[in-house]
What we know:
The structure holds 2 protein chains of 2 kinds. By secondary structure, chain A is an all-alpha fold.
Amino acid sequence: MSKSSSIKKLKKQENFIGYLFASPWITGLILLGIFPILMSLFISFTNYNMISDPKFIGFENYRILFTNDNLFWQSLGNTVYHVIIAVPLGIVVGLSLAFLLNNKIKGMGIYRTLFYLPNVVSVVAMSLLWLWLYQPNFGLINQLLKPLYDLLKMEPITWYLDPKLSKLTLILMGLWTAGGSMVIYLAQMQDIPVSLYEAAEMDGAGWFKKATLITLPLMTPSIFFNFIMGLIGSFQVFTMAYIMTSGGPSRSTYYYAYYLFDKMMADKAMGMASAMAWILLFIVLIITILALRLNKYVFYLGDET
Amino acid sequence: MVKSEVYKSKKRRQLIVHIILHIVLVLCSLVFVFPFLWMLFTALKTPAELLRGIQQFFPTVPQWQNFVKAITSIPFFMYLKNSLIVVILVVIGTTFSATTAAYAFARLNWKGRDKWFVIMLATMMLPIQVILIPTYILYSKIGWLGTRLPLIVPAFFGGGAAFYIFLLRQFFKGIPKELSESAIIDGANHWQIFIKIMLPLSKPAIVTVALFTFMGSWNDYFGPLIFLSNPDHWTLALGLRAFQTQYGGQYNLMMAASILIMMPTLILFFLAQRTFIEGIKFTGIKG
């Protein structure tokens, strides 16, 4: 009797201590997370410029965005274009690099470090560097391509100054940081038991068969992880465009997050900006849910034992 | 005899494959590393040399004074001080709030723990704009706009720490329970266990968290852009942007300034690359 009550007391105490330890984070989550999310939903139904009081206008912000705002659709289109190319391309490049490094070769650690290096640089410094590399007249890239231009008798590509190529220019630059996801892929690759490959070799499987039938299926968890994270990041692409192109030329790199930023900071149209944020949240949420359905094709090693 | 022939040819084939592999890897490394070197060469050139492109591969005479020019043409040391104030406090705050929360998740039984954990994982997927606008309004109401507080205070309350809490929780779970249990028998409370047992044993994980936080905060552009309206509080990332709008065409100075700003993160990365790569692997695979 007294023993069980003292255990109860201990449990109660642990409950309290648990909340105590988690309290800084929980306080932050409520005040700087959950509360703002609900607030932003409310604000999205109002007209609010931070000077006069918010005025409730129902779905008006959403209606204007969807039916009467070309820039909304243009910026969304730009962003979708960016996401559709950048995310798969990032996965392919990251995986290829991991495949290259996943051989028993000398200096693997050094290569891995070098491939990863661009990831520690700030986006601002990286954008300035690539602005110079892409510079149409004296930049390194066009200088290196000059023989090719001469051979094909074509005008040099103007990269970020060409509305048709500006998004691709930013996407290619983004691949410079593919070493980040590569590290994750590589780690998972090296966790695959050697015995699986040996068994396949006994059955006469070559490099290609081993890669497609063993490595790739067992890599699906990290591919899935990088896909989701890449998706969320790419939908919020902003800084590169802000620094390199200011959204131009002809608004070809005016991304969704850029338009949202302008609505918020330049126009102080907080209701409209909140509506845009919620639309973005919905888009990301729906794609994530769809992707999670694909999760049943994700193979977790160890599940099958 | 025949067998050794087969073995030999197999060995030779392997050697050729390795040589090709190394060539491909060196070429890849060039793509990743050469931009850095080109940056340095550019920073050391004269304006006239810039116009000659790759005909002028190296600077004839390294123009080290470009670095001095870059520093003196902006209030560099003020930006540096501002960056350090924000970064150091954010590192302290994040480490504090992430370790305490991780201990609660890893070692304590409290009601709703697992629900809170799921909520934490969900926050990693939120586009920050959803939170940004109301917090911006909130900070303006309480007079924090134009101060550094919006960048610093959230760190002490687990702002942006979900990944780190997750990483530390996994690490804490790996520490044998017997250690803390015997400490309890000796009369220690949870705070003492946390401070004297868990933290010292988790040094590698804590260093990883501190490093990532440092890099993230040092490189952050979006947060300062939104919240630091007062130029006296600008961080280096904002200062670099200001430099660009002012000296946009002078790529040698711009590259010199960029190099100075990426130096701390590059040096830290080289000093702690093992910790770093292990940390990324950890969040990536287990996440």
